[in-house]
Specification:
This protein is an alpha+beta fold. The protein has 4 helices and 7 strands. Helix 2 packs across helix 4. The protein starts with a helix and ends with a helix.
């Protein structure tokens, strides 16, 4: 009886270790405050046709930003390589939230959000992403947060340039 319990506990331990390896998780979070109202920031985010003019990371977005819409994101990595990622718009709240999800369960999935919060003097822009899957154990993701910071900086520059016209 005791041997069976020990084997059972050991088996659960092995399963837990395998689950941790297969279902790793990484969170990325960056924030910036843009001195403009959420409506101005949202307008730039929704104008995906103009992303190539200003966005250093999300260089192309094809498909409708609408609830349930299928999107093809082309993302530039630090070496200049363009990565294609298909996503589904999981949540869209005008002037507040754009949430996209995609990937292959168990291998790598992403849940990326643009969050806009009105604050004194403008809009807090948050990019928050949670990635999961086995691939995370092999992928150097150290470039993600710096890339999202550059995107937020470019977003601010774009919003401000349009406001000055």
């Amino acid at each position: 009886m005791i041997r069976t319990s020990i084997k059972g506990i050991a088996g659960l331990g092995v399963v837990a270790v395998i689950a941790l390896i297969l279902l790793g998780e990484k969170t990325f979070h960056v924030e910036a405050t843009i001195p403009a109202p959420p409506s101005a920031v949202w307008e730039v985010l929704m104008d995906t046709a103009r992303y190539p003019e200003w966005n250093p990371v999300f260089v192309s977005v094809s498909g409708p930003y609408e609830q349930g819409g299928e999107i093809l994101n082309e993302v530039r990595d630090p070496k200049g390589k363009i990565l294609e990622m298909t996503a589904t718009v999981a949540e869209l709240v005008p002037e507040r939230k754009l949430r996209q999800k995609g990937g292959v369960t168990g291998v790598i999935t992403f849940d990326h959000q643009w969050l806009l919060e009105p604050v004194d003097g403008g809009t807090r822009v948050i990019q928050h992403e949670v990635d999961r899957g086995l691939y995370l154990w092999f992928w150097d993701s150290s470039w993600i947060e710096p890339a999202y910071r550059r995107t937020n900086e470019a977003l601010q520059a774009r919003v401000m340039s349009l406001g000055s016209r």
